[in-house]
Amino acid sequence: MDVKLEAEEKIRVPQSLLGREELRPDVEPAGPMGVTAPPLGFEFSPLNARRWRNFKANRRGHFSLWMFLALFILSLFAELIANDRPLFIHFDGKNYFPVFVTYPDTEFGDTLGTAADYRDPYIQRFLDEHHATVIWAPIRFSYRTINDRPPSAFPSKPTWLLNKRDCDFAAKNGYSQCGALEMNWFGTDDQGRDVLARLIYGFRISVLFGLILTIVSSIIGVAAGAVQGYFGGWTDLLFQRVIEIWTSVPELYLLLIISSVLVPGFFVLLGILLLFSWVRLVGLVRAEFLRGRNFEYIQAARALGVSNRVIMFRHLLPNAMVATMTFLPFIMSSSVMTLTALDFLGFGLPPGSPSLGELLSQAKGNVQAPWLGLTGFFTVALMLSLLIFIGEAVRDAFDPRKTFT
């Protein structure tokens, strides 16, 4: 009995410490009911935090990322930047939003009953006479709007480049006077459409096309490479023979044949290019899975009865994605360039679509209008340069041998 009481005395806790928790710097204080409070906000893992620091250390790539995101986000709101419809109209006690809703012209004094054309002088005069409040987009042209009051024959030069000789030519040949012109910052193309508006819409289509094609083709390519590398044997052998046969097909000729047979369109062209673009990552992912499937922790997972699906996508895929991520910006730039090349050759998007390749094709046929070639070239060059710089920064960030201070 004495020994038992002595032991109880040794482990007795003072009353002053009851109900209190020992606070240590490496342990978060417990909340009510003894549940540890979750960390507030989003936190990177130490490895990803180091990668982000390495990415930011590449100043050119870091700046390119934010510049590319800014341009892309602005292009997503192209209808609010360049449009031939007003953003807002307040008339006769009512509010109208023509940029989002199509109104009949009977709402604005006309009698035809068709969709209102807000560039029609009659509707503009009607709104002015009734003192309507009209808010226009900064650029009063959409990508398909034809300038009906040009200073010269199409393609007409940028408005800010017009000089006295151009104004005299316009007055002599029956074109609009220089004082009554609408601003075309980059001029018009050979059909009278505003070049700047078409650049904004064309940039958005090119980026969205490249982004969708990159994501979908990467998913298919990673899945195919994972199956090949993990199972190996006859599965790997058969897959490799199929890929070798498929990649030996002349891609450009087949693209031209299919594009000439099918009705051109965004998703049709996306599906055609997807037939070939998915093989770009197969070899890389296959090699990573072949290397990683013999690791000890993979063998231990198999011995514990973990399913193949869990091993592939939870344990092997994260390691394979490290090398895969460095290729994604380059794949996207290649996708954008492919779309531009097809549009330049006339096998891309439907006629009339805002396309950078179509603008470059017009520049080839109108050498007397250098603004077409210059604007198209610098837009494509800027887009591809930003993507390449981002890709280089991502490659440095995921390289374990590189550390930046």
What does this 3D model show about the protein?
With 405 residues, the protein is mainly alpha-helical. Among the domains are: 84-136, no CATH class; 195-398, MetI-like fold (Orthogonal Bundle). The protein contains 16 helices and three strands. The protein has helices at residues 2-10, 46-57, 59-76, 78-81, 121-129, 164-172, 195-231, 233-247, 251-261, 266-277, 282-292, 296-303, 308-325, 328-345, 356-365, 370-398; strands at 88-91, 94-96, 133-135. It has a three-stranded antiparallel beta sheet, with no helix packed on it. Helix 7 runs parallel beside helix 10. It is elongated and about 85 Å long. The protein starts with a helix and ends in a 7-residue tail after the last helix.
Outline:
The chain is mainly alpha-helical and 405 residues long. It is 57% helix and 2% strand.
Keywords, please?
elongated, 405 residues, 57% helix, three-stranded antiparallel beta sheet, mainly alpha, MetI-like fold
Oligomer state equals single chain
The top-level CATH class of the domain at 195-398 is Mainly Alpha
- The total strand number stands at 3
**Spans of at least 5 consecutive residues with low confidence:** 1-42
Going across the biggest sheet, name each strand in turn.
2-1-3
> How would you sum up the major sheet?
3 strands, antiparallel
Tell me the β content. Answer: under 5%
Question: How many distinct helices?
Answer: 16
Proportion of helical residues: 55-70%
Q: Give the radius of gyration.
A: 31 Å
CATH superfamily heading of the domain at 195-398: MetI-like
**If classified by CATH, what would the architecture of the domain at 195-398 be?**
Orthogonal Bundle
